[in-house]
Amino acid sequence: MAKQQAPIQKNEIVEATFVDLTHDGAGVAKIEGFPVFVPNGLPGERAQIKVVKVNKGYGYGRIVELNERSPERVEPPCPIYKQCGGCQLQHLKYEAQLIFKQKQVQEVLNRIGRLENVKVHPVLGMSEPWRYRNKSQVPVGEREGGLVAGFYQQRSHTIINMEECLIQAEANDRIVQGVRTIAEKYGIPAYNEQTHQGILRHIVTRYGRQSQDVMVVLITRTEELPHKGKIIKEILEAFPQVKSIIQNINTKRTNVIFGEQTKVLAGEEYLYDSIGDIKFAISARSFYQVNPEQTKVLYDKALQYAELTGVETVIDAYCGIGTISLFLAQKAKSVYGVEIVPEAIEDAKRNAKLNGIENVEFAVGKAEEVIPNWYKNGIKADVIVVDPPRKGCDVELLDTIIAMKPKRVVYVSCNPGTLARDLRILEDGGFQTVEVQPVDMFPHTSHVECCVVLYQKDYIDEKTGKEMNIEVAAEL
Ligand code: SAH
Predict the structure, then answer these.
(1) How far, in Å, from the CA of 339 to the mean position of ligand 1?
(2) In the chain, what are the helix, strand and coil shares in percent, each to the nearest 5?
(3) In this predicted model, what pLDDT tens digit does every residue of 341-372 receive, in sequence order?
(4) Under CATH, what is the fold of the domain 135-275?
């Protein structure tokens, strides 16, 4: 279909009604059918829009004046909401955010995955959707006479100081600003992106919601950190809940936050926290879900979907520090976890010991290489759980899952687009997507997490649509 000629021009002011939201939370207005994306517009609202950019099939605008307000619009409680850009939906009532996310998952599964009839449940939201994050990573910059620690102003490299972030644990807000003040007192220069000079690049804090312990990570360009001893002492004195201070050295010109070298400056090498009954030791560079309350909801759902009875062999692909693996191990015969980051696998092994769980094995490597090898060596799983990063599963892994024919696959995803793509491949390879449960891990942002269960079609009874007994199916 030929792209429509733009009926509008840059800088023109037009009046239009918003008909939808994009996946990242911008309003969609149609001008003679031509879509224009406008931050902060909500469906049903009418506004004067200034066109700021016109591309081939779509344009961008900004609201000049709002003429009709949606009943679902609320005043964003965060004073830096517009400057920051970390949240995209604070101006929409929380209940409406959940409905938007459910609709979005359904729409993407239909469009990209061609899964018209799949059941997408209402999103499981939070009763108190603020202050949920357990990890804060803020860039450090300089302003006249001192340091700033906060966020990059939208579409710029200017760092704005952030006293408080309403989706962040209070302890993280307080400790980041405390560490900034201490570094400033000792004249530590902030890293400068342009000149690749200066020392302090980022302050990272991680808070154990259950343990209430905090880990502080100072990310520096150089190994040398002047007044190191005094800085450590002051942090520990000011914040007794800090149980671990780590230095991570990142010498590269890059916007990747962590470097390769990590040193313990004080206290523990790990942060300890629990989810449900399981205790975790988490090292500075390992992935750990950022919303602990909803993580429990997500893992319980994954466990429910896995329907374990105690006799199953389970594979947990992209296992991180073994969180899902250890949940599953309590109900399975054995669990094999695989993960690409070596430190995370060390954490996973330690976490198994910490909890006295013996029926798990962990391997370092790419899921798409390790699991095909396991398969070649005769390991077959009854249930496979995958929890990949945003780019989804590698096709090699999906092909192995199809060949291995587990009874069930549980797919945990933070990106509905790649989830839909991968579900289509699994469907074509003999699985049926049975249920999709979105979980709101990231309130006020446009992100949504999903937990999905697929059944191997051979195990589905055609008459009832239900799963057959595994032995009966094996005889067919
Ligand atoms: N299931 C874990 C981690 C999920 S995040 C939890 O809930 O905590 C995704 C994980 O996949 C990260 O730990 C990342 O390091 C890992 N990863 C990324 N690419 C990978 C690959 N190709 N093979 C295996 N693991 C990978």
Answers:
(1) 6
(2) 25, 30, 40
(3) 999 999 999 999 999 999 999 999 999 999 99
(4) OB fold (Dihydrolipoamide Acetyltransferase, E2P) (2.40.50)
Mean pLDDT of all residues in the chain? 94
Q: How wide is the angle at C-alpha 110 spanned by C-alphas 16 and 459, nearest 5°?
A: 165
Site to probe by mutation for ligand 1, drawn from 274, 291, 318, 325 as the one with most ligand atoms within 8 Å of Cβ, is: 318
Q: Are 299 and 324 a contacting pair, CB within 8 Å?
A: yes
What is the token pair recorded at 5? 């000629």
Q: Tell me, in angstroms, the distance from the centre of ligand 1 to residue 285's CA.
A: 12
The CATH 2.40.50.1070 domain(s) of the chain lie at 135-275
| pLDDT at 5 exceeding the cut of 80 | no
Beta carbons within 8 Å of 369's beta carbon, 6+ residues apart: 396
Any atom of ligand 1 within 6 Å of the Cβ of 286: no
pLDDT average, residue stretch 152-157? 84
Q: How far apart are CA 217 and CA 77, in angstroms?
A: 29
Residues of the chain with CATH 3.40.50.150: 111-124+291-464
Residue 227 is predicted with a pLDDT of 98
**CATH, range 13-68:** 2.40.50.140
Q: 290: Cβ below 6 Å to ligand 1?
A: no
What pLDDT does residue 476 have?
44
Residue with CA nearest ligand 1 atom 22: 366
Q: Burial letters for 267-303: b for 16+ Cβ neighbours within 10 Å, e otherwise?
A: beebbbbebeebbbbbbbbbbbbbbbbbbbbbbbbbb
88 is written with which tokens?
A: 């995209």
| Ligand 1 centroid from CA 356, angstroms | 23
Map residue 49 onto helix, strand or coil: strand
Per-residue pLDDT, 465: 66
CA torsion sign, 227 to 228 to 234 to 238?
Answer: positive
pLDDT digits (tens, 9 = 90+) for 434-457: 999 999 999 999 999 999 999 999
Which residues in 232-248 are b (16+ Cβ under 10 Å) and which e?
Answer: bebbeeebeebbbbbbb
Q: Please say whether the structural domain 111-124+291-464 has been given the CATH code 3.40.50.150.
A: yes
